[in-house]
Amino acid sequence: METGGDTNAITSRQKAAPRPAPRSVAVAKVITKDVPLYLDEIGTCTAVETVQVQAQISGQIISRDFEDGADVKKGDVLFRIDPRPFEAAFASAQADAVLAHATFQRQTELRTKAVVASQDYDVARANAMKADAAVTVAQVNLDYCTIRSPIDGRTGIRNVDVGNVVGPSSPPLVTVQRLDPIYTDFTIAEPDIPRVRQHLNGPSLQVLTEAENDYIPPRRGELTFIDNAVQPGMGTVRARATTDNHDRGLWPSQFVRVRLILETLKNAMLVPSGAVQIGQNGPYVFVVKSDSTLDLRQVKPGQRQAGETTVIIDGVKPGESVVTRGQLQLAPGMKVAAQEDKASPAGGARDDATVQ
Fold first, then answer.
1. Which of 23, 203, 236, 282 is the most buried (most CB within 10 A)?
2. What does the angle CA 237 – CA 51 – CA 59 come to, to the nearest 5 degrees?
3. Which residue, of 217, 245, 265, is where some domain finishes?
4. Structure confidence by residue, pLDDT tens digits, 41-84
């Protein structure tokens, strides 16, 4: 049975027990920044120009004047076909033309003297014209012996070697692709088309293209094409951007991440993405009030931005402090000791300095 003295001792210890210290929480300020409103898609790169170089005449390859994968200029020699048969044909055509023109000249002189039939004169004139045409054809065939690059670009792997006989029906000798600029092809989901359409009549829409493994910075291009129909059974519309590729960092058929920027949101409110939690009533954040207690705020989040930040459309104010980690251990009204989260991201939109 407890005595009065024991009761007083217990009460004294209860009064002397220290109150629990406020829980330390990491916080970050709600900042404002201009950020893009965008659509994220997956796309592929396509060469602006692709030419399969074909032999125009039949003959034997006698030289190859490029290395596989080399950059070439328009007009650079790629292959040479043995020209000797075509040089002979050209010389023969020239000789025939000389004879035909001499005959035509004589017929012209005789016609002025009215000693030749009009039919003979017409035949001589036609033969001279045919001979000139034959010279032109022979010259063209001789020129075809030198196979040149039709565009500026980069060669692929060659399909023939010196000594092979090629002709117009042979497979392509080599493929040349123009890589700068480069096309970024992607699709836009049908529900997003109205959002895109309302921005098409303004300035050119910007497109950021980024390699899947992040080995090159995002590079900026312009939307240059949207198809005129939804693809049957797909529910998407094809689109294309033209993107700078001066360093050849992007390759045809390469998969890339695509961000179509529709507009810029001015002074958007941003918080670290980790600050936004999902509860029974929807998205929320914990705001640290001026008295160091927690306030649970329902928020309306917008798009997530680069740098692990999220736009908040409604629910917080610029400059307020939000908890960035450990929210499951917190409750509204709890006293906390706020500490700046050094690891929290500071920005929202892609930094133009990192965009090529």
1. 236
2. 150
3. 265
4. 999 999 999 999 999 999 999 999 999 999 999 999 999 999 99
